[in-house]
Design goal:
This protein has 174 residues and is mostly helical. The chain is 63% helix and 6% strand. It contains eight helices and two strands; from the N terminus they run H-H-H-H-H-H-E-E-H-H. It has a two-stranded antiparallel sheet. Helix 1 (6-16) crosses helix 2, helix 1 packs across helix 4 (44-73) and helix 4 packs antiparallel against helix 7 (119-149). The longest helix has 31 residues, at 119-149. It is elongated and about 70 Å long.
Length: 174
């Protein structure tokens, strides 16, 4: 009688959107994974955890997206101004927007060498995020369609729905 780690299930489901794979990640035998994964998703408490985890992931993804967009589309004017300055002061550095700069160094002869983050890589990562977001939307639509066509929650037997708020384990028993 092995219990499923609900936290592992939720994280794996949010990452991949597949209940069967998430159940395997959480410790369910592959032969029982599909059924147990769906049983877990039928629990109100697990669905709430999934939504909470999705909101947190969305918040983190939004920060990552903003940073990547800034790298991909950000201006380099302040860095260029520093490169062409005869003398760089601490005040100039403090007020400059150097988000896109990966490295600044003085070279022999009094010049300044500035290296920028790779805009192409930032654009590639943004494209990956967009693809993942589109896949997530499709998976969410499928889950909503499934829940929309399911019988009312009160009509589902307790043994199947497992909506007990305090119960976060699913035993391997039939």
């Amino acid at each position: 009688m092995k219990t499923i780690d609900i936290k592992d299930f939720v994280l794996a489901f949010v990452r991949g959107g597949n209940a069967e794979e998430a159940a395997v990640s959480a410790g369910v035998a592959p032969i029982r994974a599909r059924l147990d994964g769906l049983r877990l998703l039928s629990r109100r408490s697990v669905r709430r955890r999934v939504e909470r985890a999705r909101r947190e992931a969305f918040s983190q993804e939004a920060e990552i997206r903003a940073g990547l967009e800034r790298l991909a589309y950000g201006r380099v004017n302040d860095a260029a101004a520093l490169a062409f300055s005869d003398e760089i002061t601490p005040a100039m550095l403090a007020s400059a927007d150097l988000y896109n700069v990966s490295e600044i160094k003085r070279v022999k002869g009094g010049g300044v060498e500035i290296k920028f983050y790779d805009r192409q890589k930032a654009l590639e990562r943004l494209a990956e995020l967009n693809d993942r977001e589109q896949t997530d939307r499709k998976a969410r639509s499928l889950v909503e369609a499934i829940y929309g066509s399911a019988p009312a929650e009160g009509a589902v037997p307790d043994a199947v729905s497992g909506d007990d708020e305090d119960e976060d384990d699913l035993s391997g028993e039939d």
